[in-house]
């Protein structure tokens, strides 16, 4: 259960700017409540407590963000196509500041990798990062996004366009292929989504 030390009024403004509905608190001690994607944020005088099955969508919006971060992504399918899941993590000088994982239905490994990249970039955008260094263990996705390899499959082409739109929203970005052991947290999160952990 993440506890975010922050100014609740500023945090509320960030949520509302992102289109999250905010309502009054349920007790005299609660300043406000907000819900998104199965998670609930409850504001008190100097902090916000987030609870639920997937708190990352709210925690990324509640933190003030800014600055530079490393964004790790991984998608996997068991079978090709088969059941698929994604994992992602955002790391700044403060450590892991946001992460997430989810099952995404039945798809190919490459489509899962792109889904993970897009979700990770959305998380970095919502967190408010100005600069991102993106890392993934899919050479295909990295080289396609950088424009070194062609994208022939229509769905992958659409996801590449979406990834580039998100990347272009940052002041500076890079994307590089890394070995799986460097991408371990995102890989673990994708596997946890498969296992229901």
TrEMBL record:
Q: Where is the RNase H type-1 domain?
A: 65-195
Any single GO molecular-function term of the entry would be: nucleic acid binding
- Entry protein name: Ribonuclease HI family protein
Signal peptide range = none
Q: Which Gene3D superfamilies match?
A: Ribonuclease H-like superfamily/Ribonuclease H
| Higher taxonomy | Archaea, Methanobacteriati, Methanobacteriota, Stenosarchaea group, Halobacteria
């Amino acid at each position: 259960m993440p506890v975010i030390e922050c100014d609740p009024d500023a945090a509320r403004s960030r949520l509302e700017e992102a289109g999250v509905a905010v309502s009054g608190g349920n007790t005299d001690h609660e300043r406000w409540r907000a819900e998104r994607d199965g998670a609930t944020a409850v504001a008190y005088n100097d902090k916000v407590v987030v609870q639920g099955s997937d708190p990352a969508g709210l925690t990324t919006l509640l933190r003030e963000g800014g600055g530079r971060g490393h964004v790790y992504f991984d998608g996997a399918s068991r079978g090709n196509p088969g059941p698929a899941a994604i994992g992602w993590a955002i790391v700044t000088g403060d450590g892991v500041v946001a992460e997430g994982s989810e099952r995404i239905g039945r798809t190919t490994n490459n489509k899962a990798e792109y889904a993970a990249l897009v979700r990770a970039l959305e998380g970095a955008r919502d967190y408010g990062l100005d600069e991102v260094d993106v890392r993934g263990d899919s050479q295909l996705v990295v080289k396609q996004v950088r424009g070194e390899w062609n994208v022939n499959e229509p769905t992958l082409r659409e996801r590449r366009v979406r990834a580039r739109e998100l990347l272009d929203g940052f002041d500076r970005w890079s994307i590089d292929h890394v070995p799986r052991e460097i991408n371990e947290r995102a890989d673990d999160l994708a596997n946890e989504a498969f296992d229901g952990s």
